[in-house]
Amino acid sequence: MTRHLISSADLSREETIAILETAVSMHDLQRRDVKKVPTLRGRTVINLFFEDSTRTRSSFEIAGKWMSADTINLSGKGSSTSKGESLRDTARTIDAMSVDALVIRHQASGACHQVAQWVRASVINAGDGMHEHPTQALLDAYTLRTRLGELDGRHIVLVGDLTHSRVFRSNVITLKTLGARVTVVAPPTLMPSGIGTWSATDGFATGWDLDAVIDSDDPVDAVMMLRVQRERMSGGYFPTAREYTVGYGLTRERLERLVARNPEVLVMHPGPMNRGLEIAADAADAPQSVVLDQVSAGVAVRMAVLYHLLAGDESTRDDVERSVSA
Amino acid sequence: MSRLLIKGARPLGADATDLLVEGGVIRKVGSLGSERVDLTIDADGLVALPGLVDLHVHLREPGREDAETIATGSAAAAAGGFTAVFAMANTSPVTDTAEAAERVLDLGRSCGLTDVVPVGAVTKALEGAELAELGLMARSRARVRVFSDDGHCVHDSRIMRRALEYIRAFDGVISQHSQDPRLADASACCHEGELSGRLGLPGWPGIAEESIVARDVMLARHTGSRVHVAHVSTAGTVEVIRWAKARGIDVTAEVTPHHLALTTDLLSGYDPVYKVNPPLRPSDDIEALRAGLVDGTIDAVATDHAPHARHDKEHAFVDAAFGMLGLETALAVVSDLLVRPGLLGWADVARVMSSAPARIGRLQGHGMPLEVGNPANITLIDPDREVTVDAATSRSRSRNNPWHGRTFRGAVVTTLLRGAVTHTTERELTTVTESEN
Q1: Quick check: pTM over 0.90?
Q2: CB contact under 8 A, A128 and B192
Q3: SS3 per-residue string spanning B340-387
């Protein structure tokens, strides 16, 4: 297993599946009254968040605490305008306290990659700018596998602001790693640069027409709606929220057509949702929706990631397996 | 040093000859037997070029002396074979007055390692709103002829038009940093393409450069004035300039060694040493830039030497400073990548790195042929010497060197500024020169 988790591409298919299977055990643990296991006792995990986040940070914090790690939350100052400490100094200062893992959220793409070159601790990417969010992709894969079993050949559709989405960038990697077929849909202005050659190299499909994808002969197993920030309108990415919804929103009517073709279709969203923009309330709360399952899986998957990166030696592995199977 | 004999040098790579220098001027050229001199330089096998001239450097003084000073930048320039450098105006304070320009000139003279020629700002404080005192800078002792808001584009079409019209009175030139701020804003830091898409870095599309260049050549045609395109980075820009030159428009252009050699895929590791503005481009652009330099569409090689304090490069990639060192490595890069494969001869190197930049900048006493009566600004080059770049040994105060660890064939051996040795790798010569002082 890799020492850091910076990109979803750091994980092979075997490693990805190993984490997801560990997460199953962790998820079982989560349903007990006493949730704590001693696996990471004496280990220190720093949640270093340069960018606000409620769900990812609390999810990592709970994961660390249930594994008995000492978990400390730090909010960093890292805006491009701040004339303060350099990222290297911040990272090395914390690393000098002999911590075991740095869970980093940063508004700049590549920040985790850079920090990993400067520190001894394991670095876990909790979202870097527009780049990646590998634990989100793992929890999405976990949620999908729980419902669908192995993902080989499954058709997963991602819709929304791909340009600014780290969820998209990690998911497309993890889903391909697990053998799924991926289609991404967005208006041309929200497609990342070079998507044409990129999709050809990495083997996923792209489209501007959501209805064409829904109505194609290739039924959809899951549709993942990505958050669209309303501010994007001022950047000229699309004219109005109304127009976006008509073109790319998961409306009740679109959900009905998806269900008509595949009654088992799953509706996903990484949150936070803009109800009425990219997803209608009817779709978000439909029986097909697994949005809360995704949140629930977040803790288990992050426990599994901490376990695989930090509990390297056999003694601690036995330890966790005993406590999980007890 | 009163009399100096250079033995066996090959001017522009041609047959070996001797040059006698006296009083800073070339006095004799030819086979010179027994001259009574104070110093003899054995230049057997070395190529002699007119001292190199760099139209585009950042020396950071005044304001950021922790990154570079005129002294350290001058030393780096001399080590790179340069006898004159044009120091960009984006210092603190900005070079936007005659007094500021004269101060840069005087600091350069007091170092005496290279002629430091101040570039004047086009607009006050580089803000793009009001013209700086272009005429007073031109009339000053610094005789400013090159004006640039480099780092910022003069994007307002009316300001650019007025500036071009105004500088005709003293034969000035606007060196434009071509970047439409609406198409590539201050956060843009990666060539827009598949890599920027994958890395999630704000894209810097070629069109943001090309559209400004297209506008500027039309403004140059309309005003009859001179525009110079700084750091050309795309094939599209080369096309536009070629089109404009074919129509007699007075446009000139420069390209940096890094845009001739380094590709955008170096950014895949998010190492800010490769962050530069305009960004590194794909190999298709590099091919077009090389072709443009070879066919004369691009007039000059300029380094855009941009030193930065270490901590300014140790931020997240999008937050780190733009720019890379270039003075000490420019000749080696050109020699290795363009001369060795036969794309350029040494006479061409003299043109693109000396005579053309001196002409564009209306700089007297530089870029002149190695002929009797001309100032002895001479760069001696060993075309076969291999040099591996070591960032730690740079004369620059900064270490943001993208060439670290790379090996090039072709090295500057000795630099002479008006007959004075300002740099040499030859130990004997160093000793003699030092004892003379």
Answers
A1: yes
A2: no
A3: CCCCCCHHHHHHHHHHHHHHHCCCCCCCCCCCCCCECCEEEEEEEEEE
